[in-house]
Amino acid sequence: MSIQLTVNGIARTVEAPPEMPLLWVLRDLLGLTGTKYGCGVAQCRACTVHVGGAPVFACQTPISAVGAQPVTTIEGLGAAKLHVLQEAWLAEDVAQCGYCQPGQLMSAAALLAQHPAPTEAQIDEALMGNLCRCGTYPRIRKAIARVAAGGALAPARAQDGAK
Amino acid sequence: MSARDLYKELIAGRSAGSQARGRSADISRRTFLSVSASATGGLLLAVSCKGKDPSPGAASPGAAEPAADVRPPPAGAAAELNAWIHIDHADHVTLRIAESEMGQGILTALAMILAEELDADWSKVSAEHAPCDARRYGRQGTGGSSSIRQGWEPMKKAGAAARAMLIAAAAERLGVPASELTTEPCLVVHAASGRKLPYGTLVAAAARLQPPAEPTLKDPTTYRLVGKSIARLDAPAKITGQAVYGLDVRVPGMKFAVVARPPALGSSVASFDAAKALAVPGVEQVVQVPAGVAVIAANTWAALRGRDALTVQWTPGTHPQLSTAGITETLAAALRPSKTAGAAPAIAKAQGKAEATLARSKRRVVATYEAPYLAHATMEPLNCTVHLSDGKCKVWTGTQGPTRAQSTVAEALGLAPENVEIITTFLGGGFGRRSQADFVKEAAQVAKHVAAPVQLVWTREDDLRAGFYRPAAMATIEAALDARGFPSAWVHRIASPSILEQMNGLVDGVDQSSVEGVVNLPYSAPPNGWHGKPANQAFPLLVTWANPKLPLSTWFWRSVGSSQNAWMVECFVDELARAAGQDPLQYRQKMLPDGMRHRRVLDEVARLSGWGKPVAEGHALGVAVHESFGSYVAVVAEVSLAAAAAGAPGAPGAPGAGAPGAPASPASAASAAPASREPRVHKLWCVVDAGRVVNPNTVAAQMESGLIYGLSAALYGKIDVAGGAITTASFAQYPALRLPQCPDIEVVILNSKAEPGGIGEPSTPVVAPAVCNALLALTGQPVRKLPIAPVT
Ligand code: FES
Ligand code: FES
Fold it and tell me: What is the pTM of this model?
């Protein structure tokens, strides 16, 4: 069946069964592969996207549940200009393999939208679902703290007098 | 040849065994350079390196080890690195390397080494994966924490040679002697006349020159890049969703496949009925393949639903009685003095008369440790995309072994390797798992049936249940203590299923990967007071290895044998210190003489952690030290015990449902018995001597990563078996550390002029023993089985 949705500000129409999870609609039908599959059963949050501004498991969200709510994926997070969190992620050199990072960033962005200066407990609560097998947690914490504190964002490439 | 050299060889697509053993130790490293003009008139430099592994190796525990300690020198291992360097008219430097980026930062580090000697402008440097082409790039494989160790010399030489050629081209153009020329980033400078020529203007002329055989290398004190923390080149793509992993490969007309797999070990397809699967919209084909039954569909979701709908009759498994407890029993049986069954254990090391000394001793300590099977559980599930057409095959996959993948696909499809092109994508984690080629082979077998490109997707359940595992291990360690409480003999009997046997890789009947970290035990007995000998004395050491037969497939897992052996050895050392009534850190210091690299990291971690000073009420510290992959790591863990609380990933229970708006809710529910307490790891202090460090930021990140990976395993990791089937099938059953449980980590990198050591693996082995030793200090009870059970 034909389903309309708005992804990263663009109206899209897909042919899909209504129960098809948003994850596979994004990845396989729309070619937006920045949203990751990690488990498919709500245990890793690699698939986190925003629906109507709230973070959701794309793997557990049937496309029929999206309706008119706008969908934002990692591709839309910093499309015009990098999101402050992405800048902070660069400054702390967070990503390793990078596979979990779109989900981490989407969870963190939703947190900051709700709590611009989150407490440690709020950071724990918002990010505890996001698994990272490379162990980037300490840097994720620092990167979020950097933004929350309104810290200056040193451009990562100029660190340590590389030039 | 050490286990990790074999590892490197094996994943690079070579066979091991006798061939590897016969290689001479004294081939010097040689770097070959060839120069040409690129199609666009730039300078193209091909670099290949053959020769000896530069690291001191796992077989050589310390620089200043006592002379009495006789350990075999590491056998020379042929190592290869292949790279292509291109400099264009706009000064852009592109490095293509035959190593896989799986999070360890290798693209960036090798580019830094090259840019350093080339004197390139870092903002104009990029790095990418080389396509697998054995003729152009040589054998490719990434593993054994070897990339920097093998790339260091050739990258330096290649950069220096290119710089020398650019200088020579400038000398000719300016009509001045080359000796009057120097360089600044991407510029050749004639200081006397103030003239400057950008590299881009010289590349065409330089491409006609011969590369110097022995280019002059920079004085390391003048390095601008190497040794500095530089942000990773791949970071921007990874935070914007642009980085392409294997699962992200999209090719026009492609199909998606999942495979229904046998429920039990050794089971296979008896028959199947595809009707219901084919009735699922989007499902296009259902075919039998060696791994099971493949469902091929227009998208992943349809393939998954098709698999759910499929009816398959499976043959019974081959080990219906096998359970987790049965694995323990099999390991224990292999350690019992041989009755009749099974081969006698092999002797991995016999130094002095350990058994006789032990038999005579009045003071003995004995302990048996057990470590479980572990899955790698990379964040990106395994996958591979194959397009077979016109007798040629194109393969996109995140692999640690492109050459192995190439030969595997060629064999599976009956093609010549040159007709198989492997395109290496970013890897969503490797940890050793992606050096296997099983998933690549399976994709090729599926592709045979499909007239389009097809992406084989493993679900998380497939990844955990149909995988290759870090072998389980059990060891009984017995030591005799002298009057002062130091070992006078150490007998270490290991039972652990072999990894290398499947590649015919045993050396003198021993799997070196099963005994690494034990045969090179770093400890020696300190001199006996003023009247004793001046240097520490090696004590008699016997290490045996039994290879119990179990049906789970084994493979290299981050830090390989050290992952379990360092845990056992370092926990046992704490038990010895306790028996001797000594502080465990000082006890180690006395057994590691001054000047040893183990000692250096240990001393520094003692200082850093404030060892010996009071800690918070209910907290305790534990320490461990270990060398692997040519790097030395010491860790102190600060641990307390607390009631199992919500949010602990070890607690089972389904995470929150995923309706839009639902908060990110991880595994919650405190299901452990109310009286039980779990370890809380508050802080890890980590000191590493990794030789000369290219990018400290990457080294620190890899130390953090390895510690967290090892801590996840220590706290939660195990693969369970029931009724002959692997029952661990999800992150709920195979939990890993989450952000709230992640301790503070402080990493200190020691200055060292030694050759670069590995960085991807060496911090993983030390975290479990440090945490267990802290628990021993807290409770008085040793932890002898992993994962760490709740304390009651
Ligand atoms: S893929 Fe959705 S939570 Fe794991
Ligand atoms: S960066 Fe690799 S899983 Fe998080």
Answer: 0.89
